[in-house]
Amino acid sequence: MVVGVSKGFDKRLQMVGVGYRAMLEGQDLVLNLGFSHPVRMPIPTGIQVKVEDNTRIIVSGYDKCAIGEFAASIRKWRPPEPYKGKGVKYADEIVRRKEGKAGKKK
């Protein structure tokens, strides 16, 4: 709790995929994740969100639980898939990749 008040906590998310981007509009985080509509997420009070390079999102604040919860709610819209690695992932997350159908030999 002392670290949260003095330095603060942050979670970094990265968007991988063609056309995936994020932007801030007022108190909303707008995500384009390949759906037919943009995803609008209201930012909770006590949490700051920064967007860098349209593909990196930094969620910061003093409440570690609320930061993790909001970052997980962003990630749940498009979790990283194992074949191409596309989706929203944590910056330090390693996505375990699978080989496709062509990789299997008899």
TrEMBL record:
One of its GO terms (cellular component) is ribosome. The keyword Lipoprotein does not apply. It holds the Pfam family Ribosomal_L6. It comes from the Eukaryota. Keywords: Ribonucleoprotein, Ribosomal protein. One of its GO terms (biological process) is translation. The keyword Magnesium does not apply. Residues 16-90 form the Large ribosomal subunit protein uL6 alpha-beta domain. GO terms for molecular function: rRNA binding; structural constituent of ribosome. PROSITE patterns: RIBOSOMAL_L6_1. Belongs to the universal ribosomal protein uL6 family. PANTHER family: 60S/50S RIBOSOMAL PROTEIN L6/L9, LARGE RIBOSOMAL SUBUNIT PROTEIN UL6M. This is Large ribosomal subunit protein uL6 alpha-beta domain-containing protein.
